User: Fold this.
Amino acid sequence: MIVHHSFDLSPEEFEARKAWPLQRGGLGCDWKGDFASQSPLNAMYISREGDGAEGSSSFLALPGRHSDQFYAEATPYWQRPRQTFDLRNTRATLYLKAITPITVNAGYRPHLFIDDYCEQANTFCGWYLNQPLRVGAEWTLNVLDLFNDEKLWTRYSDQRSLDTVLSRVGFIGGTYIGGTHFRGVDAQGILGIDELRYQIPL
Assistant:
C-alpha cells in the first residue's frame, strides 16, 4: 500500500498530529505523533494559500531561522499503533519548492533520508540518498528509487546496515546535510513540501 501525505489538513489538525515527547527526557523517552521537524522543534506549519503541488489547497511549510538543523519528516514509528515500513527496492516521491529563497552554509544540500530507532540501545541510525533533492522556485517533483545498495547512500549516524534500516523505516523525510553533518546548517528561508509518497512499488 502506498503511503501518501498530501498535507490538505487544517492548521489545527496538523498541530494535533505533530510528534511531541510524552514526558521529559529527549529522544530516550516515548513520543507520539505523525510529523516532526527541526529546528526549533516542530516550527513547521500548514500553509493554506491555495498554491500546493498538484493543485492541492495547502502544503507543509518549513521555516529556516538560522536553523542548526533543517529537516521535516513523517514519523510512523511514533504513531499509534507504531509502524515501520520495509522500503527496500521501492520508490518515494515528493514535491519541493523554495517558498522564499533558501540559504544554508557551504556544503549543505537537500537529501531524502530514512531513520530506524532501536529502543534497546536508544539509538537512531540514519542514511540519506546521495542523489540530492531538487528545490525550485516552482513545485519540483522528486522521484527517488530506494535501492538496497549502500553505494547509493551515506550513513550519518550509528552503525546499522542499510538493509537493516531500509527494512524497518520509522522516519522518512527531507533534510539539508553536509557529508555526515546534519547540524550546523544555518538555514534561512521557507521550504515547501507537498505530496510525499512512499512504499511505491518499482
Remarks:
- DSSP finds two helices and 14 strands in the chain.
- The radius of gyration is 16 Å.
